[in-house]
Amino acid sequence: MGWYFEDFEEGQVFVTPARTVTEADVVTFAGLSGDYNPLHTDAEFAARTPFGTRIAHGLLVLSIVSGLGARTGLFDETTIALLGVDWRFLQPVRMADTIRAEMTVSRKRTTRHPERGILVRGIRVLNQRNEVVQEGTMTLMIRRRPVTAQQCV
């Protein structure tokens, strides 16, 4: 079971596991998304760009980061909904780059529903050279700790 709203404190920092972005990831994402931009799929074209090689789709990296956050176990069975993403793509992620994310609890607030709260996480995505390649926020609706019968007495 993941953490409840009450378990998080503003300013807490969590680091996800790391993951290497592979060519298979890029090819699979192109097929799933329909985004066959030659910057991602054509080695000859990409060699003539400022990047000098194919790069991963920015949204692929964002999706991987979402999965890395899930791998922490912090949100297992307690997340109700992803409410929003505000994101910046700062540097390219190349195949064979290894990324991880640092998640900081930026804000939290209760809602009018006593069983839910809103958690805003600031996220920085770093590569193996500790360069920030993407950053932004993800806002979650998360379960609050259930009130037990004993607490009501």
Notes on the protein architecture:
- It is a single chain.
- By secondary structure, the protein is of the alpha+beta class.
- It has one domain: Thiol Ester Dehydrase, Chain A (Roll).
- Helices cover 25% and strands 34% of the residues.
- The protein has helices at residues 23-33, 38-41, 43-47, 58-71, 149-152, and strands spanning 13-15, 19-20, 79-89, 98-110, 116-126, 132-143.
- Strands 1, 2, 3, 4, 5 and 6 form a six-stranded antiparallel sheet that branches.
- The longest helix has 14 residues, at 58-71.
- The chain is elongated and about 60 Å long.
- The two termini are 26 Å apart.
- The model has no long low-confidence stretch (mean pLDDT 95).
Helix tally equals 5
Give the class from helix and strand content and strand pairing.
alpha+beta
What is the β-strand count? Answer: 6
Please give the largest β-sheet: 6 strands, antiparallel
Outline, from the CA principal axes? elongated
Low-confidence residue ranges? none
Distance between the termini: 26 Å
Query: Helix-strand pattern, N to C?
Result: EEHHHHEEEEH
Strand content: 25-35%
**What is the overall pLDDT average?**
95
Architecture, according to CATH?
A: Roll
Question: Quaternary arrangement of the chains shown?
Answer: single chain
CATH class bucket: Alpha Beta
CATH topology value: Thiol Ester Dehydrase, Chain A
Overall radius of gyration: 18 Å
Helix content, binned percent: 10-25%
Q: How many domains in all? A: 1
